[in-house]
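Review this:
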Amino acid sequence: MKSRTEISGSSGSFLSIEACDLLDEVKTLKEDGWRFCQACADRLDDGIEIIYTFENTAKLLNLKMVVAEEQTVDSITFVFWTAFDAELDIARDCGVKFKHVAEEHLHEFYDVADISYSAERIHGDMEALTEQRDYRQMVYVAERMTGTSSFGHSLGFCMAVEKASKIEVPARAEYLRIILMELSRVQSHLYWLSSVAERIGFESLAMGFLSVREPVLTMFDRISGNRIMLSLCKVGGMKKDISTQQLEDIHNTIENLRERIQTLTLLVKEDASICRRLEGIGVLDEKTAETFCGGPAARGSAVMTDARMDESWKIYESLGFVPIIEEGCDGLARCKVAVEEIYHSFTLIENAINEMYAFDLKIFNDNRAIAKHEQPITPDMSGDNEDKSTLFEKFKDQLSYQDSYVFIPQRYAWLGQIGNNRLYELLSDLRPDDIELITLYVFERYTYEEIGKKFGISKQAVNQRVNRLKRQLRCA
């Protein structure tokens, strides 16, 4: 006997069914034009909850069922072949037994027989390219080592060349590098968090992180003309400046992102489902992390390491930089490090912008020179008028003034409240009957028919005069 309970919400409709009805429901959905999106599962106190998600014309439908530990479930791969990978994940992670999915399939697709890693190949390739190209060309090569961290790679190469060549970078360029580096860190962490969310079956959270990342990429596009490969860093400084308006846009973007990301980061830290899927997974002890890892992976295992602590980045000290450390040594700890570093990057960017404003003002004041000179107004004894100098005669029009008052009737008092000088000039040049027409139509809410009676003209004529006045005043 079928049991169906349907609930609608922001994530689409949820239809609770029995496991024995799964295939019939899925076949009906396919006949109606629905397509398979994803499947996920989670362990509950009374069994395992499985959710299949389908989409049709931007609508989502979730088939939800709870099965016992040893219960066998029909596979929907024969209806939607794209569900095969998702059902393998559920079988491997939660132990669900699917019909027609052989036990060996779980190992054939996912077991790793052997793994080897070598950093020498990448290092050797980069060294070989460096020998063949000019150092200015290598900035672009280094930038393309990865996508999400492209600015960091180009910056690291430039800093190495500057250190070897003893090149001093201007202070403003240092601030600009930090702003762009931290923005790059934010978008990189957001992309990484979205990948983690997708792999644990939380696709809505993954899309949330990607949507928050989008304004950062848009800001990169406005500054450099590119969303990922900025190509702004060069040996000795930056290729272009960031305008004051762009700095204000960056500040406003950060304020907006700080509000939007709060709910997402709270889910990562406190959601029970996410914590169960990440806690104790990918454990990396402190000693191993210190030996082989860097960045958030090492800091998630309580290793006090961060490139920003290096003496090459002394400017970070003035910005209030503090490394983010977590002691969990697992996937959840690394996610917490990434989340906290996003917030810390926001603070560093804001501090860098404020310090840059103060630095620019100091440079302006240090380089400004002021000289005082007074021109005495001495009598010109050569003329008939001995009490006035020629200098006074030259500037007497600018030094004198005459008060003038214009009487405005009370009905036209609105003219004196016009703040737009150009609009006020245009209104002052209008005929009195035009001013009267504007007063009646705009401020006293007369209809075309009532205005026509006062002026002794038709409604059509009133309409024509109103349109003419609109055209005359529009240029203001």
User: Anything to note?
Assistant: The beta strands are 5-9, 12-16, 35-44, 47-56, 59-67, 72-73, 97-98, 233-234, 237-238. The CA atoms of residues 145 and 153 lie 7 Å apart. The longest strand covers residues 35-44.
